[in-house]
Protein 1
Amino acid sequence: MNVAASASASMSAAIHAEHLRKVYSHAPPGVAALDDLTLDVPTGRIYGLIGRNGAGKTTFVRIAATQLTKTSGVIEVLGHDVDQEPRVVRTQVACVPQESRPLYFLNVDEVVYLYLKLRGADSPDARRRTKDVLAELDLTEYAHQSVMRLSGGLRRRTLCAMVLASDAEVLFLDEPTTGLDPLARRGVWEAIRRTSRERRTLLLTTHYLDEAEALSARLALVEEGRLLLEGTPQDLRARVRYPYRVTVQTPFPREELEPYGRVTNIEGGYLVFAREDDAREVARRALDRGARLSMGPVSLEDIFLDVVGRSIQDDALPSDAEEGVFERA
Ligand SMILES: Nc1ncnc2c1ncn2[C@@H]1O[C@H](COP(=O)(O)OP(=O)(O)OP(=O)(O)O)[C@@H](O)[C@H]1O
Ligand SMILES: [Mg+2]
């Protein structure tokens, strides 16, 4: 990318990171939590950050949200350098941290209301937003309960409510739905989508890849502090060598499936990654034998397992990496 293109990308990006590096003070020698990370989070969109435990997601979120300082590189939020203008950035961002507890001695509605007041909302606005967000996240019946007596998932939802009720331009949600029941998760999804319709930016980290795919306009996959993949869910699929997955439950001879794609053993049968025509052929053969089968496009989880798996394998065995679901870069 030339300099002009890079500059214009950074102007339209809500979060701009360039060669970002973070080495924690007590890290083992040579271990960086973020290593030359360059990415742009577009304004007004939901951006998904995914990766294994320890990949660096929370480190990125905390640096962008002014809670942690970088070691080197550039990080800007809404055009403001996070190190040079942290106070400006802080007024425009809100964050659901990965681990934290809302103030225990207050009721649910008080926690949300006070958070909004501290952010500068006037009283009627804070009251209205509190009422709306509690309804949105199905928390109205708990409004007057002490946070201390809530279950873990309800406390998490209270934290999400605080941040999703705010008027911040950039929202950081670090695993907002971890520990939430499936209905509550969908409530948070709706609130996330509503915030995005208000043209505000959300950076979401999650280990639920269905969630990442359902919500994110773009996704970044990080591993050991580096960017492995970045793009829209469609971009990621467009790069897939084998865009279909077929599962076949039968004692098929494996050799019969091998010519059609990449075959792995699963409980009671095989999983085949294949191109469309080959996937149809595998399905036809399975039907001929009366075997149970399922067929569909590869999931983000397939892509994740393949790309991260090969990245780990490449570290260990540089010359012996298998052909993947993905095209190699
Ligand atoms: N306060 C800290 N001091 C030293 N090292 C840290 C600290 N916090 C995180 N790390 C290290 O930095 C790396 C990235 O951690 P980080 O918490 O950013 O990962 P993550 O992607 O959020 O993982 P998870 O999915 O488990 O939340 C890990 O190797 C971790 O051990
Ligand atoms: Mg984390």
Protein 2
Amino acid sequence: MTNEIRSIFNRIAPVYDQLNDWLSLGQHRVWKEMAVKWSFAQPGDTCLDLCCGSGDLSLRLARRVGATGQVYGVDFSSAMLEIAKQRFQRQYPHIQDLSNPVSNIRVTWVEADVLDLPFEDHQFDAATMGYGLRNVRSIPQCLKELHRVLKRGAKAAILDFHRPSNPQIRAFQQWYLDNLVVRAAHNLGLQEEYAYISPSLDRFPMGAEQVTIARQVGFATATHYPIANGMMGVLVVTKL
Ligand SMILES: C[S@@+](CC[C@H](N)C(=O)[O-])C[C@H]1O[C@@H](n2cnc3c(N)ncnc32)[C@H](O)[C@@H]1O
């Protein structure tokens, strides 16, 4: 299962950014900025971006924490991390050494499974995760690991798809997933890989259930905010 998910993302990696932009009409950038803001990351913080993929959210977080901060982007797909490194080179061509403290932005890319993070306990001031939670094999294990590595008082903001409660918007979302998304992916030869979104969303616990799981693994507070007419959501958790 883990290998299957990883190889899907390795195959998607070359077109992932292009499809994201196209399918969300660029809105994913706004939603990711919301996640960065709601993580309460501050200049100078050491932060984590789980399931970082091609690194868009990690770089947004890195800009927020600035030259005195540090971001670790974690993903188990080597192809996605390769795109993340290329994106970084494109956006910051003058920075050669990513961990150099005199750079104006510091990111370290880590190839690892988010269900077994290679970090000590209580290490991070804030965390984000974009479109990752729906894909992991065990949501409780993922949130438990996140809880372990956050410092006390730290927050994490977890952005993902959501099912709208309004039946008309829900029907629109389903039409969109079954038609536009799969058709766009088909044109790029990746129909099967993108057909997984709808069933993964059917299996994904919705807002209230996400809150329950987060509380069960130890988060002191957990709130789910539906955004984009309920088609997306951000789970914000705090460790005390
Ligand atoms: C849909 S992409 C999201 C990428 C990025 N966060 C974004 O918002 O554009 C999901 C990512 O999660 C990664 N992923 C899924 N399960 C994982 C796991 N158990 N450990 C590490 N990465 C994982 C995949 O490799 C993929 O890059």
